[in-house]
Amino acid sequence: MSRDPLIVGGIVGDIVDYFDMSARLRVLYSNREITNGSELRPSQVANQPTVQITGRPGSLYTLVMVDPDVPTPSDPSQREYLHWFVTDIPEGRDVSRGTEVVAYERPQPTAGIHRVAFVAFRQSVQQVIYAPGWRSNFITRDLAECYNLGVPVAAAYFYCQREGTCGGRRYR
Fold first, then answer.
1. CA 144 centroid distance within chain
2. What CDD domains has UniProt attached to this entry (predicted)?
3. Rounded CA gap, 85 and 132, in Å?
4. 103 partner at 20 to 30 Å CA-CA among 29, 88, 137, 161?
């Protein structure tokens, strides 16, 4: 049985294929760094996080933030929902130094416990990447293929559910 949290959480499989992590992705909401599988409420993720990617000096990165569980984990018919999309992020610098392609939209699950994933790709060149015309039914794998981004270099995720709900984590 795999202990890789990205496999256990279904990020590998539902969003991306297996990859070897070759960069470090730090995501902080109000100075709280998320860890894979941590649980955050919508009120805790209302504001855009601070994100930093460290890996190969001089590199540029692309970051996508998606929810593969929209509208509900049991019926993810709008998989993946695009919450944020940033390109040209300089290595070691905050994501705010990149080019925001799709503005941050906070997760607001209405039912169930949703996974919210951040996936980072190393860009081979600086390039113009266009915003998709929609947020629902975004496909991270298609983005990577269309713009020759290759495999991810880092990913992280957290669980999020509607405010005021009780209950625990959903295990796969």
1. 13
2. PEBP_euk
3. 10
4. 161
User: For residues 90 and 93, what is the distance between their CA atoms, to the nearest angstrom?
Assistant: 6
Helix or strand holding residue 144 (H, E): helix 140-146
Q: How confident is the model at residue 47 (pLDDT cuts 50, 70, 90)?
A: very high
For 72-86, what is the mean pLDDT? 96
Q: Are 140 and 80 a contacting pair, CB within 8 Å?
A: yes
> What is the three-class DSSP state of 64?
strand
The pLDDT of residue 150 is 94
Owner of token pair 């713009």 = 147
Q: State the Cα–Cα distance between residues 96 and 87, nearest whole angstrom.
A: 10
Strand intervals (E) in 30-149 = 32-33, 38-40, 50-54, 60-67, 81-90, 99-102, 114-123
Residue 80 exposure: Cα atoms within 13 Å on the Cβ side = 27
Token pair 């279904």 is found at 10
CA-based torsion, 71, 75, 77, 78: positive or negative: positive
- The per-residue pLDDT for range 111-142, each reduced to its tens digit, is 999 999 999 999 999 989 999 999 999 999 99
